[in-house]
Amino acid sequence: MGFNMKTKILLIYTGGTIGMIKDLDTGGLRAFDFNNLLLRVPELKLLDCNINTISFKNPIDSSNMNQNYWVDIAQIIETNYKIYDGFVILHGSDTMSYTASALSFMLENLNKPVIFTGSQLPVGDLRTDAKENLITSIQIASLKRKGEPVIKEVALYFEYKLYRANRTTKINAEHFEAFASLNYPTLVESGVHLKVNDQHLLKPKTNLPLKVHTSLNANVIIIKLFPGICESVINAMLNIPNLQGVVLETFGSGNTTTCQWFIDALTKTIQKGIPIINVTQCSGGYVIMGQYETSTKLKSIGLISGKNMTTEAAITKLMYLLNKNLSLNELKVHFETSLRGEI
Q1: What are the DSSP E strand ranges found in 57-131?
Q2: pLDDT tens digit sequence for 37-72
Q3: Contact between 246 and 223 (Cβ < 8 Å)
Q4: Catalytic residue flag (residue 99)
Q5: Which one of 39, 78, 239, 337 is most buried, counting C-beta atoms within 10 A?
Q6: DSSP per residue, 1-24
Q7: For residues 97 and 310, what is the distance between their CA atoms, to the nearest angstrom?
Q8: Contact (Cβ atoms closer than 8 angstroms) between residue 332 and residue 305
Q9: First and final CA of the chain: distance in angstroms?
Q10: Structure confidence at residue 32 (pLDDT)
């Protein structure tokens, strides 16, 4: 395993702290011209790969991220897929897990690395984490074995660890270790050497051509339950005009109140053909409907189990599947099946 002299990496800048520099006069952060990246991070010259950069015309704060930008990123990858050996996407950390999860579903038959990274401090900052995250992401994207990329999936690199993208959640707004993957082991650990955990990598059927899906349905909602949530609130949310899918964040291993009004509201929604996905509010763990009495009814009325999926993966997978013209039962089968290693 090693770095190929001719490995070509495309760096895609969407926005976020990593691409900011501090204006010394005002102290405010502003985006810098990404073509000058080598001036800011001269260490990139030491990498044995050719790096090209492409930037959103108007880089955005990741809080403004939406499905149209996801399509833009997917199309940049599709256009350049045959030219480059790997892709590194620089993105604000706040919604990175959502974008990275969405891209994992949008890029079918992916057999090259697509690595998301960012930073908590800008690249020019004295104590920045940006350089390490950027340099190591590019190194990992360059890894080859017998001429083949080692990573063949959408991944997320932050603070010495590479995770499967659709298993990640942002857990901390100020620590450098901002992300966690509580239900799946790390893919690569960066120390003195890069330690690749081969047994955890996705091993796709590489003979199939990349298929990019750009049709996503955003008529979806996440409902987080809390003790005492009232009937009028649930009914208002479930009766939103043109609602087409619901991710329900439940307690523990998939439990909810057993109040009849609540079960009736869910039943009515499912009878309208609107899928409801059961995911746990816990950071880690598994939804097992029927383990407790408080989830037995949910199973019988037809809730779909999110199993051990993150909320980010569940909502983006739902957006991806809703435009596939599937019956409610077909959608359930697809949802409860691991498509990109998300379960």
Answers
A1: 86-90, 107-108, 114-117
A2: 667 788 888 888 999 999 998 888 899 999 999 999
A3: yes
A4: no
A5: 78
A6: -EE-TTEEEEEEE--SGGGEEE-T
A7: 9
A8: no
A9: 28
A10: 67
What CATH number was assigned to the domain covering residues 220-335? 3.40.50.40
Give the separation between CA 13 and CA 16, rounded to whole angstroms: 8
Which residues make Cβ contacts (< 8 Å) with residue 83, sequence separation at least 6?
A: 8, 10
The residues near 169 (Cβ < 8 Å, ≥ 6 apart) are 97, 179, 180, 181, 182, 283, 310, 311, 312
Cα–Cα distance for residue pair 70/291, rounded to 1 Å: 37
For residue 160, the one-letter residue type is Y
Element (H, E) at 112: none
Q: Which residues are within 8 A (CB) of 300 and not within 5 positions of it... i.e. 6 or more apart?
A: none
Q: Of residues 7, 17, 99, 169, which has the active-site annotation?
A: 17
- 255 beta partners: 251
- How many helices and strands, by DSSP H and E, does the chain display? 9, 21
Handedness of CA 312, 102, 17, 11 (dihedral sign): positive
Pick the CATH number of 2-212 from 3.40.50.1170, 3.10.330.20, 3.40.50.11740, 3.40.50.1820: 3.40.50.1170
- Per residue in 74-94, pLDDT tens? 999 999 999 999 999 999 999
Q: Can you give the residue ranges of every domain in the chain? A: 2-212, 220-335
Burial letters 168-188, b for 16+ CB under 10 A, else e: bbbeeeeebebbbbebbebbb
The closest of 147, 77, 167 to 114, measured between CA atoms, is: 77
Per DSSP bridges, beta strands 304-305 and 276-280 are parallel
For tokens 């609107």, the residue is: 274
